[in-house]
Please model this.
Amino acid sequence: MFVSDNLSVNKQGNLAIGGVDTVMLAKKYGTPLYVMDEDRIRRDCRIFQKSMEKYYDGQGLVCYASKAFSCKEIYRVMQSENMGIDVVSGGELYTAIKAGFDVSKACFHGNNKTNEELQMALEYGVGRIVVDNIYEMETLNRFAAEKGVSAPILLRIKPGVDAHTHNFIRTGQIDSKFGFALETGEAFDAVKKALAYENLELRGLHCHIGSQILDTQGFTAAAEVMMEFIKQLKTELDYETQDLNLGGGFGICYTEADDPIPYDEYMKDVAQVINGFCEANQIKRPFILIEPGRSIAAPAGITLYTVGSKKIIPNIRTYVSVDGGMCDNPRYILYQSAYDALVANKAGEPKTERVTIAGKCCESGDLVGENMPIQPCEPGDIIAVCATGAYNYSMASNYNRLQKPAVVFVSGGTDRVVIQRETLDDLMRNDI
Ligand code: LLP
Model:
């Protein structure tokens, strides 16, 4: 009935998340409101970790890709779950540090890290800096030499596997702003260069093939390509790769049309490829890192809105306007992403209408979704949009000077604010 198994209908007929009544939450904290189920986040972290244990003898680290949802509390949760993290900016890194996260378990990504960001990574002892290009490699080596340290690095490789086409193509991915290409020999040369730098410690390789991937084929194809490269480095350079970071991208269920693989299957298939390859080629098994973002944050979250006006345009469509929109969820206007929505205070009733849910921004494209099945609704009703825990808050904006909503975590039947709602004065914080 729901896209996520932490959602249910309670005795009052209201939608509950993690057992907490969403209509009560909307009243208590106001709308729009992001609500995230901390217990579900922790459960999914453990599913990935257990699969790493089961299929790869625990010789790996699951790193939460915090671009999906970043705030101090999520880093505290990750720290207490013994997770690693992926950060992609000084801002994410700083937030993690301020939350007390041990950044020796962080991977720092980005195709154009600034000098300040690289310095910061060295200063705070980031465990793995994922070098994207030669310019960055040279800069980082220089900064590390100035500090008298050795920078632990991985190299970002384009494995040439395009996960976004149905049939995986192994070429064509050269045209990406991220990383070193394999086909042209660029990646091989980058490894040679990295090994020659005195103040870089090349720990291994990284790849990431895409996002919202619903089966394992692309992942196993990428793992094979990376293992072939590891073999080439061993035979031609006598270099033994310690770490292989295979990135994130595990798909989730946004609507009933999505049928993602259980995450356990992913580790099973990928571990089989790597274990088999190492055995057949007498190669030491690398330490594996994976970086799930969406799969940990998205299903744990929902967004609550209050319905305002309803505009019925005969024979065309019905617009239901809510008090948020593209500012708190830009994914429809950016990618036409489909979501499941329901009226939280009528959650047990059948969805007999199809409506366009519109935001309140001064922009015709500001929609949460079109042709969405939903219960009949009227002004004052609470609409819940499901699976909004990833890339919603983290991509939110203040367009039209709207205030970013609060984020509430529920856990064990209780609720608490982890990010406060922005005030009108917050909007002017940096204005002169
Ligand atoms: N690792 C790397 C290097 C990445 O670039 C990403 C996502 C991840 C891990 C996590 O991927 P995930 O497990 O979340 O799929 N804004 C888009 C998604 C962009 C993803 C960018 N990189 C969206 O809203 O769909």
About this structure: The pocket of LLP is lined by residues 65, 67-68, 86, 109, 208, 211, 247-250, 291-295, 331, 391 (CB under 6 Å). The chain has a mean pLDDT of 96. The first helix runs from residue 22 to 29.
